[in-house]
Amino acid sequence: MFIDVDYKKRLKGAKFHLARPNRIPIDVIHERFEESVSVKLGNIGELSFSIPYEIEDANTGEYITNPQIHSIKELMLIRVTMESFEEWYVVSEIKEDSDDDEVFNVTAFSLGYELRRKKITGIEEESINLTQLMTMLLSETVWKIGTIDPMFDAMFRSFESGDNTNILDCITQAIETFGALIIWDTINKTISFKDATKNGKFRGMIVKDGQFLNTVSRTRSTDEMVTRFHMEGSEGLTIHSVNP
Question: What is the pTM for the complete model shown?
Fold first, then answer.
């Protein structure tokens, strides 16, 4: 089932702090509009907003060039805080439309996106667990392992990075291989891996047509149908430790 959620809601009370790549704040982004945030469970979140090219001078009342047009650049960081929510984003794209000289559009992704710029190649493992794999992938970065549920260290899988790839893509491949739920901590720069069946709490929110939901569709296909064998030997011996 595919659900199209409307993320373009006003982020009430949210504060946007512009910071250098070393996380030193340099400004607060007040004059903004059309801001939207996409928080994706187990994936990289997305932030987008627009700022005007001109703003009103508080002292003279005249319109002047918005100084943040020049200070917001690619790879700068944005910290979004709202009530108990805090997340760091890295600016990925800036769009300036020649047909619209009033709007400056910014797109940013949650901080784990910076691992996309870390190239890696040549990893070929016949049997490796998740802690061993993540230790290898993060060894040349500032990111660290948070917590990994023990079940993933009892699993041993083959893994191949391929050529000319990056660490973020390898992490995405790893969570698909092990079936883990990834938790990005952009404040402490840690990555945790949880059992998806044992994490998450229902808080009573209901999503329905006309309320948080734009459209809903369901597609059924035989292309993804498979046959699964459950193999068990003498005294309950199984192969779960090497293959699900």
Answer: 0.75
